Amino acid sequence: MVDLSVKIGALTLANPVMPASGSFSTEYAQVIDINRLGALVAKTVSRNFRAGNPTPRAAEVEAGMINSIGLPTKGLQYFLDVQLPDYKQYTPPLVASISAEDADDFQAMARDISAPGVDAIEINISCPTRKPGGGNFALQANHTRDIVARVRSVTDKPVWAKLSPNAGEIVDVALAAEEAGADALTVANTILAMKIDVASFRPALGNKVGGFSGPAIKPIIMRMVYQISKAVSIPVIGCGGISNAEDVIEYMLAGASAVEIGYINFRNPTAMISIIDDLRDWCDKRGIKRIADLTRAVRDDDMETDIYAAAAQGL
Amino acid sequence: MTLRDYRYASQPFVVGASAAADFPAHTVVEETLTEVVANDWVNDEYKHLVVTASPKALAVKPGQFFHVLCPSPDQGDLWFRRPQSIYAIDKDAGRLEFLYKCVGRGTHGLATMGPGDKCNIVGPLGIGFSLEPQWKNIVVLGRGVGLATMAPISQLAGERGVGVTAILSARNASYLLSREKFAAIGAAIVPVIDTDGTSAVENVEAILRALIDDGKADAFFTCGSNRLFQVMRRLGKEFGIPGQIAMEQIMACGLGPCYVCVKTFEVDGQKVLRRVCVEGPVFDIQEALGW
User: What is the fold, at CATH topology level, of the domain defined by A6-52+70-190+213-312?
Assistant: First the structure.
């Protein structure tokens, strides 16, 4: 039987399947055994209460959805007092997710959330739907370097930087995060997008624009995971449009050590459990002993990019 | 038994299968693969869906809902489930019933299903209606598709010997859905329709005031009309009559974490956001600001 465990730096996960921040809470324990997940990733918290964005907050689009929730949160203290103990009733490692309006607060948030029971901190520097004035630091390498370095300086917890697919040069941003001391990179957040209702002439979302997720974005994020994995030596967590176990395998081949799953949880609340079972079957059927061996196992070393040279190889 | 929808990973409980280790006993919500028994038109806009159900699904209470994975009505695909409030619970036959209006791609897709088709539902979800033991007579006020939501709470009230007055509102008499269902539980039925003007706010207010005078209104229940909700809320406040309203909102997860389905409520003078899926869909009528 395959060993499904994977390592993200010093943290060992029982399997590579985690929920994506914002798509999950302990409320899923009403419908699945969440102790089976590789880790639990909490919704992003900010220091103070945030109401979030106007409704409608989500809309169907082809092969996915766009959302603009606006990071509603009851604040850091509520997380520490109520949500953290709630999460610790369950056995998988807990990944806290934080956001802030400015660099000073990001640093202070990282310090303040480094409580016992938090096994890693994912820094959400890439939410596409924050109001102007802050949030999407991952658009630029220098901002990313600054935030990651500040966070790194105040916590011993593993730091995962969640990158933005809206960055112009995401590999540069990834390298900046690695240089500044990130332990892993989550690639990626949603893609900024829009839908307009042609009957009413109105934007489908209350915030007018929102983040695109779901199966449609998988090839885009796959390319980012692939290119970033070639460039960095820290673990990459693939996040974008996973619908089944083969999508997880594909992300691992591209370079991911683990994955985060969002949209499909909304479509089928049993999806993550099904994917874990299917990963085991997929590996066992092929005699794969350790799923971790699939990371960066894409066979591309001998691929010529020159068409005539490729033809000479019989490709 | 497990079933793989390979493109979109899923491990639903299949109605009729024996419970397996995959389905922890402590979970109260279930992704269930049901089978369509019937899906018939009741008029030119509404259909009545009957599906087989598992023990967990049959535990649904009036006012709760299921998140239904509707098939596509066209050559594209659908990407969200559609919340549908429960219309009837037949524990003896092991069946659930839904009454829905065909308005968008989801419900038009649902309309394409026929007997024997598999229908994937998630539930029971949300907080349903409460029926306090001291209430001897209740008034339910529904319009359009909101009538479906009013049926199970009326039935429960009937079973407990609580008097029910059902004010049924619609555009015209042919849309007065499930009149027979309310009649079967012995409800006093007051149809109000647009075509003869009886559904006007003033008339509905007069009807409600008469019921209050007669001692027939220990509690109010409503769904389906913002206009009529406002009347009920105002009279509830004036006479101190408790009320409950079932709400609708666009939903993604249906379980709580996504925060898509929020609506604004007013509690002690403060505006608060609540999730329709887990903090509702049934709310205190005085805290609601609009249907």
Answer: TIM Barrel (3.20.20)
